[in-house]
Amino acid sequence: MKVPLLDLKAQLAPIATEVKNAVIEVIESTNYIMGPKIEELEKQVADYCQVKECIAVSSGTDALLVALMALDVKHGDLVITTPYSFFASAGVVARLGATPVLVEIDADTFNMDPQKLAEWFDKNKDKTSKVKAIIPIHLFGQCADMTPILEVANQYKIPVIEDAAQAIGATYPTKDGVRKAGSMGTIGCYSFFPSKNLGCAGDGGAVVTNDPVLGEKLRRLRTHGAKPKYYHSLIGGNFRLDPIQAAVLLVKLPHLEKWHQMRRDNAHFYDETLNVAQIKKPKLAYGRQHHIYNQYVLLVENRRDELRDFLSKNDIGNEVYYPVSFHEQECFQYLGYKKGDFPISERNARHSIAIPIYPELNRDMQQYVVEKLGEFFSK
């Protein structure tokens, strides 16, 4: 049996005609830059994410980059994030000449540890004035613990950029009600990379905010800081989303909640049937209904790389998200961190492995995955 890590053909099959017609509509309109598809997508995403402003952009990476630009992050500034994420979370900070400052993750959720964030501020009072943003990451589809993170940010009057690239539609319970990922901080950032729960047919992303002034600034930055055309009040970039990608996303968005639930159902099956002593299953921080399971990531005690080889030989897709923490990346050696500074991130990088969780995964395929995991560790 073959069980891929992700099967986009299975997702496309029932909506293929609608997707093709939507793409052809854009092509025949000859409206290839911005236009009504972008405007409609922005409206629908804003409504779905419970925010006032949505600005569609060219990628999740550019979403983070333009968010930092909107907050005037520049050379010499500090931006706090974690050592454990896709490279863009810290890379965009360095691209602007600012310095990524890293705080440890929670061992179970892989997300920013709010206590470590508070401790950093307690220990670095001489640097707090240089901190221009905090970037918590909602990794694998589960929100970071935003209430204490926002308390720290508010105490020091620091904007929060939510990296929700893997978490559109994930929710977080607060004393004032349930909030959507990306809607709680100053700015939220999403990725529409094809492997995401809501993915387009290429690169794409979005930035959201509840601040209309900031929203207007983000819109200007998206088009080289111009408004009107050829009159530049800011230095921005070309961060526009292709309307063909917007058309694809408009077809997919109405299916998103159903796809989330299918992933939750698949996760529930693993949670109930995968009982191997050497495997630690993902922790639910707030309840299954709040998680969207962009990935289902296991922690294995040992032999992770052997396990990967075994699964691959048995036609089971798998991946490591992520094998190298930021402070161990060659390009970030100038930051001055050393091996051992973030032991939880380092350990999770050595022991984590993602297994298939996509919506169209059937029970026979999942049972095969469970059986092979048990077989490997029984030897």
Structure description:
The chain has 379 residues and is of the alpha/beta class. It folds into 2 domains: 8-103 and 110-254, Type I PLP-dependent aspartate aminotransferase-like (Major domain) (Aspartate Aminotransferase, domain 2, 3-Layer(aba) Sandwich), CATH 3.40.640.10; 255-378, Aspartate Aminotransferase, domain 1. The protein contains 13 helices and 12 strands. Strands 1-9-8-5 form a 4-stranded mixed β-sheet, with helices on both faces. A 3-stranded parallel β-sheet has the order 3-2-4, covered by helices on one side. α5 links the parallel β2 and β3. The two termini are 21 Å apart. The mean pLDDT is 97.
Topology:
Blueprint: H1 8-12, H2 16-29, H3 36-49, E1 53-57, H4 60-70, E2 78-81, H5 88-95, E3 99-102, H6 114-123, E4 131-134, H7 146-155, E5 161-163, E6 171-174, E7 177-180, E8 187-191, E9 205-209, H8 212-222, H9 243-252, H10 256-273, E10 279-280, E11 296-300, H11 304-313, H12 343-351, E12 352-355, H13 363-378
Parallel strand pairs: 2-3, 2-4, 5-8
Antiparallel strand pairs: 1-9, 6-7, 8-9, 10-11, 11-12
Helix pairs in contact: 2-9, 3-9, 4-5, 4-8, 6-7, 10-13
Query: Which quaternary structure do these chains form?
Result: single chain
CATH superfamily of the largest domain: Type I PLP-dependent aspartate aminotransferase-like (Major domain)
Q: How would a textbook summarize the main sheet?
A: 4 strands, mixed
DSSP helix fraction: 25-40%
CATH class of the largest domain: Alpha Beta
Number of strands: 12
First-residue to last-residue Cα separation:
21 Å
Mean pLDDT: 97
Under CATH, the topology of the largest domain can be stated as Aspartate Aminotransferase, domain 2
Main-sheet strand order equals 1-9-8-5
Estimated share of beta-strand residues: 5-15%
How many H/I helical runs? 13
The rounded Rg comes to: 21 Å
* Envelope shape: globular
Low-confidence stretches: none
Q: Give me the secondary-structure category.
A: alpha/beta
Order of helices and strands: HHHEHEHEHEHEEEEEHHHEEHHEH
CATH architecture of the largest domain: 3-Layer(aba) Sandwich
